[in-house]
Design the sequence.
């Protein structure tokens, strides 16, 4: 079981939430489908129950920079509880990525930004990005991601609906799994 990818993903999600909402000295909860956690941990658990039992029994989380993580079953998903120390660690030690700050600002100041606004921002950081129209049967209109390394590793799926534009960000592996 590889814990680094999960820890890094949690750090990224905590930092994104802190950019959007500010720092809160509280326990944080994140919800993952079993398939996503399997990809992050490089495991092959069949159910949330089996996964949670094994994860809660693992001593791997005792030395985590985020503190001792706890896991619970919530329907078909796994709830990951990050203690207050984890939120504090991210707040005090992880610098907010400039690209993500500007992307969040774009979406918060312009609730109906268009694809040209979004690609302009990506282009400011690198010419090495890809913007693709999503197939008709998908929940999103576009996917945009950097093809080069070092700026941002996530895939941003964009939805424009009823005058609002939103994004969801996925790991490359989770994005690719949407098409299987």
Sequence:
């Amino acid at each position: 079981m590889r814990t680094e990818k999960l820890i890094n993903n949690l750090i990224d999600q905590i930092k994104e939430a802190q950019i959007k909402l500010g720092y809160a000295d509280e326990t944080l909860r994140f919800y993952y489908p079993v398939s996503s956690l399997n990809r992050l941990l490089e495991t092959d658990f069949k159910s949330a129950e089996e996964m949670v039992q094994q994860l809660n029994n693992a001593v791997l989380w005792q030395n985590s920079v985020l503190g001792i993580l706890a896991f619970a079953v919530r329907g078909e998903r796994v709830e990951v509880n990050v203690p207050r120390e984890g939120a504090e660690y991210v707040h005090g030690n992880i610098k907010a990525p400039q690209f993500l700050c500007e992307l969040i600002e774009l979406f918060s100041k312009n609730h109906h930004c268009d694809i040209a606004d979004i690609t302009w921002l990506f282009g400011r950081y690198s010419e090495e990005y890809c913007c693709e129209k999503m197939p008709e049967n998908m929940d999103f209109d576009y996917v945009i991601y950097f093809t080069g390394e070092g700026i941002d590793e996530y895939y941003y799926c964009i939805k424009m609906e009823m005058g609002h534009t939103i994004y969801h960000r996925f790991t490359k592996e989770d994005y690719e799994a949407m098409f299987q």
The chain has two domains: 4-93, 98-177. The chain has a mean pLDDT of 94. The CA atoms of residues 29 and 138 lie 27 Å apart.
